[in-house]
Amino acid sequence: MPGRRSHIIESADVAVARVSGEYKLLSTGSIPAGGYLYWIDGELTGIPSRHSVQIDSDVHVDVADGHTLEECLDLFIWRFMNHSCEPNAVIRGRDVLTVRPINRGEELTFNYNTTEYEMAEPFDWNCETSRCGGRIQGFRYISRAERERLRPWLAPHLLRLLDSDAEPGVRVNREAPAIR
Fold it and tell me: How far apart are alpha carbons 136 and 156 in whole angstroms?
């Protein structure tokens, strides 16, 4: 779809649900691998926050102040997509795509280390998988081996850093690999 996408979900059915006191983004239907989920709408900012998503070296998408919870549930569903060390979605620019088939009722997740250079609010994580990252702080803090493992899912701004071993802010023009 050319041009700016609206916050309205165009090709996938998802819903925010509160489960055990925690908000989660769930699939309301089956979605194929490589399926388009939605576009991340919001305010562009140069400063990361607890809920922002980094989409370029110095660019984050965030929800502007003043929105009610109900507005966030309707307009900014991406805000409720949680971290997983074994995610089923990836972020490319402001598009969110599936990396494997997703079943109805399954939580939609992405690996925060694939978009965030440095987390505004790092957190401890224990998903009890063999790939668990433990403390989630952002790309800056993961090992070279983990960076290479995450290569297929890295956002272009982090892939450029990996390929160039450059410091943040140095721009290298390289294409991100296709999602497999």
Answer: 20
pLDDT score at 161: 92
Does position 6 have pLDDT exceeding 50, yes or no? no
Q: Residues with Cβ < 8 Å from 28, sequence gap 6 or more?
A: 13, 14, 15, 104, 105
* Cα separation, 74 vs 79, whole angstroms: 11
- The string of DSSP letters for 122-168 reads -EE----STT--SEE--GGGS-HHHHHHHGGG--HHHHHHHHHTPPT
Residue 140 has pLDDT above 90, yes or no: yes
pTM: 0.81
Hey, where are the domains in the chain?
14-164
CB atoms within 10 A of CB 153: 23
The domain defined by 14-164 carries CATH number 3.20.20.210:
no
Looking at this protein, which amino acid is placed at residue 163?
D
CA atoms within 13 A on the CB side of 71: 8
- pLDDT tens track for 75-113: 899 999 999 999 999 999 999 999 999 999 999 999 999
